[in-house]
Amino acid sequence: MTLRYVISGCKKSGNHGSGQSGFTLIELIMVIVILGILSAFALPKFADFTSDAEAATIEGALGGVKSAAAIAHAADLAGGSTGSITLEGTNYTLVNGYPDKDNLEAIAGLDGFEVDITTVATKASVLVKAAAEGVLCFTYVESAGGGAPPTFEPASGTGTWDLTADPDECN
């Protein structure tokens, strides 16, 4: 007994093996429309890298200044609190064991930042902001003495570290 298998199906007549496959024009247009809609929502999220980079720049400078102040203070304590330290062959004057306003830029390595040295209301301070216009900033206020470290204040005077504040307040 012989069994035969019959496969039923629809056969195209004519060109065998040249059946077309792929997407229709309508399907391709729909894919392009969907991608356009998705990119309209996603693009604003990725386009705001500039303000994030500006905030990261000033946060990095703030971290560098805090570290430099701590290192200078530690070097002063280790050297017997003489009021000056030598770092990499250069002598720096300290105020109450911390960098003074005139040496902060060199000790902290603030190359590429705009540094304004001022005295406001008998407080010696240094305004630090990125060289690019419209970038946030902070103020370094020298140590008041009595073992107190220097203070770091937002330059906008708001008392908070709101890095989304109006950069024009940083003048």
Briefly say what this structure is.
With 171 residues, this protein is α+β, with helices and mostly antiparallel strands.
What is the fold's blueprint, element by element?
Elements lengths: L24 H23 L1 H30 L5 E4 L2 E6 L2 E2 L4 H5 L4 E8 L2 E8 L6 E5 L9 E4 L17
Antiparallel strand pairs: 1-2, 2-3, 4-5, 5-6, 6-7
Key traits:
171 residues, 3-stranded antiparallel β-sheet, 3 helices, elongated
Q: What does this protein look like?
A:
This protein is α+β, with helices and mostly antiparallel strands and 171 residues long. The chain has one domain. The protein contains 3 helices and 7 strands, in the order H-H-E-E-E-H-E-E-E-E. The strands form 2 sheets. It has a 4-stranded antiparallel beta sheet with strand order 4-5-6-7, with helices on one face. Strand 1 and strand 2 (90-95) form a beta hairpin. The longest helix has 30 residues, at 49-78. It is elongated and about 105 Å long. Residues 157-168 have low confidence and may be disordered.
Largest sheet: 4 strands, antiparallel
Q: Helical region count?
A: 3
**Overall 3D form:** elongated
Strand order of the largest sheet: 4-5-6-7
Gap from first CA to last CA: 100 Å
Portion of residues in beta strands equals 15-25%
